[in-house]
Amino acid sequence: MRVGLHGRLFFSHVVVMLVGLISFIVISRAASLHLFSRHLNKMASLGHTVHEIREELLFGFESAWSGSTAWALMIGGLTAAALSYWVARRITLPLTKMERIAQQFAAGNWSEQVPRSDIPELARLSRSFNRLALSLQDVEERRREMMSDLTHELRTPLTIVRGYLEQSTVAGTSLSPDIAQLLVRETKRLERLVNSLQELSRAEAGQLPLHLQAIALPPLFDKLLLRFDSQIAEDGPQLGWQCDDDIAPVLADGDRLEQILVNLLGNAIKHTRQGKITLIAWEASTQVWIAVQDTGIGIAPNDLPHVFERFWRSSQGQPSSQGGSGIGLAITKRLVELQGGCIEVESEIGRGSTFRFSLPKA
Prior knowledge:
The chain is built from 7 helices and 7 strands; from the N terminus they run H-H-H-H-E-H-E-E-H-E-E-H-E-E. It is α+β, with helices and mostly antiparallel strands. The strands form 2 sheets. The chain has a 5-stranded mixed β-sheet. A two-stranded antiparallel ribbon has the order 1-3. The radius of gyration is 39 Å and the shape is elongated. The model has no long low-confidence stretch (mean pLDDT about 80).
């Protein structure tokens, strides 16, 4: 049979009490008779006649001491046992409540919190437990939201593909080139979504291999702008970059850094019909900051805290059918953090957005 914490505390208090009482009895019994005998000898040396009744006095003292000790042991023991039980219950009561609330958390009920204890150690434990509960609640809510968003993202292309295939089957006709091209686009969209989810999962688990090396930024900027220049219409935004030619190289994974900039530039192009999109880099202490600045539609202030969340899309953006997977910025943020940097965003409706991130100098 396993003894709980309450029983262990109570038993430990009783054991400590008994050890103290037994030590007191043994020592005081041996010492008190010796001291009382010395006192009688001293009285006899002063001329008092105590020799005839010496043995009777010693016996009477021992009987009186034994009786009083028995009463003291019984009353003290009961008092100490009651006090030990009260102390043990007072200590374990918050833990019992914590266990009950943890069981409610396991059942999906997040409404209760552990009350604060008067005992400092248990008060700190209660605060930590409540913070953990809030964190778990937030994780659970995000998980449900992600599953809902993921279901929506998968259902849309699947519905399109199934609808055209069923229509073709019922009519007994082959698919037109336009419809076939549409189905190819939708299947590619599904493939991008699955690949992005897999990459985000690996990034958040820290399982993406990184090959850090010194990377010069001006050649990389030239390469990226040349790549995106063909994707912009003649009346679209102008692409450019600004930084010193001798700016310090960054310590980063070349492929992942390019992926970060491709994500940010792609979003900027998607939301900037006219104006400018500029790549900017500058040094700050041991870091190099890189920014993608556009003059696009901007992001609403209430949307800014959510831009790096999974499946987030700007309420001013394009329809989801024309957009990406909705997790590109989440991947971007994690890739920056894995390489020792951080990422920030500033935006104003109608004036554009600036995404900037830092990387360590090589």
